[in-house]
Amino acid sequence: MHTLKHIAIAGNIGAGKTTLSEMLSKHYGWEVQYEDTTTNPYLGDFYEDMQRWSFNLQIYFLNSRYQQILNIRKGKNTVVQDRTIYEDAHIFAPNLHDMNLMSSRDFANYIELFRLMSSQVEPPDLLIYLKSSIPKLVQHIHTRGRDYEGNMSLDYLKKLNERYESWIEGYSEGNLLVINNDNMDFKNNPEHFGIIIEKVDAEINGLF
User: Fold this and answer.
1) Are 175 and 200 in contact (CB under 8 A)?
2) 82 belongs to the catalytic site
């Protein structure tokens, strides 16, 4: 009997991943694995000088998410993971490379490492993609007011969103649930959250 171990939430910056992770964890009694932004030793430097620190930052994220997945699979609990190992490799790293913020040799090195690591781990039992338009993302980013996100350009968000869309279109690693977040306020509207729960329940029941 397959047990549900790993639910992952994907989405652009400001899509509401952390909020949804927390709400699902409360509802289902799952554990949450957050993205490591508080103890990440590169994040501050990266926003000061992206070209210098992009490779280091991406390697740090890759390592931390790889460890998370290994721990999730070894552990006894069902875990909801805030952002996936795939997003770094399919969205953030190529975007940095495209913007000439990561050199081609660093990028090639990074992708090789990602391929090796991802071949060693199982994909999430269920991937939930929070699909959001740019205005919705911007609204969220401003509301939470993280310093280092303050000077993020619309162009940057747009490029990331395009990459998200094409990644999700071709995602074939496992089960996928796309939630269109534009007309949703699952944080403040219990009815909206109820709609998400129904969808997640249907997916989970379909797995077993």
Assistant:
1) no
2) yes
